[in-house]
Design a protein that fits this description.
- By secondary structure, this protein is α/β, with parallel strands linked by helices.
- Helices cover 35% and strands 11% of the residues.
- The protein is built from 17 helices and twelve strands.
- Strands 1, 2, 3, 4, 5, 8, 9 and 10 form an eight-stranded mixed β-sheet that branches. Strands 6-7 form a two-stranded antiparallel ribbon.
- Strand 2, helix 2 and strand 3 form a beta-alpha-beta unit.
- Helix 1 crosses helix 17 and helix 3 packs across helix 5.
Length: 441
């Protein structure tokens, strides 16, 4: 059996894919205590038992050394008691260093200390010497520049050096060759989500050269949002009209793609994490203005060009009337006319243009850690943790533990369920990459 290490493992998206591909995860690590509960609970489900045949260590990677990792693996009961011979090599190390500093979705900060974590990943690779390595990150990783970066061998890189060039150089200096980094779209691998991620694959000198996975579906056959989550519509009448029978993807999600260590599946007995966010009637009515597949920007443009009828939108009428000091009849006329002012549109819609009602016929947009601005195609609401997990290709039996969400400054330190899902590597994408490593082992 091939053996793997999963660093920056999060809730376990990568681990799910590795296990589906046939790897046994001997060691994993993440810094979050909230993530640890979810990850270890899942491993218990799968028969990966702490101290017996696997080890999870909650740690900052800067405090984690190769010798410590080897000690944890050496002391696993299956090796200590001689049940199985301790492998001389780790076949694969995989990791996704924290990507907030690289992300194009928010403010990019060259000085963000999390940007340096990929260097710590290289350090651990050098200390463990696995046969193959994989690094996953966001697209912004490809063009993030550094000032005064100094590598683990002491090499000082010119100001403006980009992350991929530094990474490939650092790995070559410690005896690893790398493939040209590639951006993979999760939807190409059966994930019902348009999610681009940078994948680096490296290999120890002397090992067979691996490849990136070829897409298993084309754009015409992507798994749609309807195929992914239509069975989770809460309104019975809407659900029955939209989806009279479960899709192949929904059946597989319920049956379970990730096997236990003995090879048996884990079917879901009861779907967890289906609680919906609290939402006011005003917000629900605001969501109702969106057409399927429409963004906030397109909605504003449509109202300016065609006007919109707010008749029957009780809470919106009352709110706009109070804010604009007009009667409700005047409000109806105001918004039915073309060329509504930007101020009036801000009152009606707020200044947020990033809201979007997803298109049921397409894969979802990229699942993020805060799902407040994604609207269901069928109901005037945002999504549950389970719906987001389905879009990521997690099995229904996978339980996300801890707080469902958080807010304010706590978002800097807490990793609640929505964040665990949004930060994860889609298991089916990880599986596709891991199967390429299996081919060359």
């Amino acid at each position: 059996m091939p053996y793997a290490i999963d660093l920056f493992c999060g809730a376990g998206g990568c681990s799910e894919g590795l296990i589906q591909a046939g790897f046994h995860i001997l060691f994993s690590s993440d810094i979050s205590d909230m993530v640890e509960k979810t990850y270890r609970n899942r491993h218990d489900q799968l028969g990966l038992i702490q101290g017996y045949n696997t080890w999870f260590q909650r740690s900052d990677i800067r405090d984690l050394s190769g010798s410590q990792i080897n000690d944890y693996i050496d002391n696993l009961e299956i090796f200590r008691t001689g049940q199985i011979a301790r492998p001389t090599d780790i076949d694969l190390m995989i990791g996704g260093p924290s990507c907030q500093g690289f992300s194009r979705a928010g403010r990019r900060d060259k000085s963000d200390p999390r940007n340096m974590l990929f260097g710590e990943y290289v350090r651990v690779i050098n200390e463990i010497r696995p046969r193959y390595i994989v690094l996953e990150n966001v697209e912004g990783f490809m063009d993030m520049q550094f000032l005064g970066y100094k590598g683990i061998t002491g090499v000082e890189y010119p100001d403006g050096s980009v992350t991929p060039d530094i990474l490939r150089s650092e790995l070559q200096l410690i005896g690893y060759q790398t493939l040209e980094p590639k951006i993979l779209n999760a939807a190409d691998y059966g994930v019902p989500q348009r999610r681009n991620r940078v994948i680096f694959i490296g290999y120890r000198e002397g090992e067979k050269v691996p490849s990136y996975p070829d897409p298993i579906v084309d754009e015409k056959h992507y798994v749609s949002l309807k195929e992914a989550i239509s069975d989770l519509i809460t309104d019975d009448s809407i659900r029955l009209s939209v989806s009279k029978r479960k899709s192949k993807y929904q059946i597989e999600s319920a049956k379970g793609r990730t096997p236990k260590l003995d090879g048996t599946p884990i079917p879901s007995k009861k779907i967890s994490c289906t609680e919906l966010p609290n939402m006011s009637d005003l917000v629900s009515e605001r969501f109702s203005l969106f057409f399927e597949g429409e963004t906030g920007t397109k909605l504003r443009k449509r109202i300016k060009e065609n006007g919109i009828d707010l008749t029957g939108k009780v809470h919106l009428l009352k709110y706009c009337s109070e804010q604009l000091n007009l009667t409700e009849e005047e409000i109806i006329q105001l918004y039915m006319n073309k060329n509504v002012s930007d101020h009036a549109l801000d009152i009606l819609l707020t200044k947020k243009n990033i809201r979007q009602r997803w298109d049921s016929k397409l894969p979802s947009a990229t699942v993020v850690t805060i799902a407040d601005d994604y609207i269901s195609p069928w109901e005037n609401r945002t999504f549950s943790v389970r719906e987001m997990a389905r879009c990521q290709s997690f099995d229904d039996s996978f339980e996300f533990l801890g707080k469902r969400t958080t807010g304010g400054l706590l978002r800097r330190i807490e990793v609640p369920q929505y964040t665990q899902v949004g930060n994860a590597v889609p298991p089916l994408l990880a599986k596709a990459v891991a199967l390429e490593i299996i081919k060359v082992l």
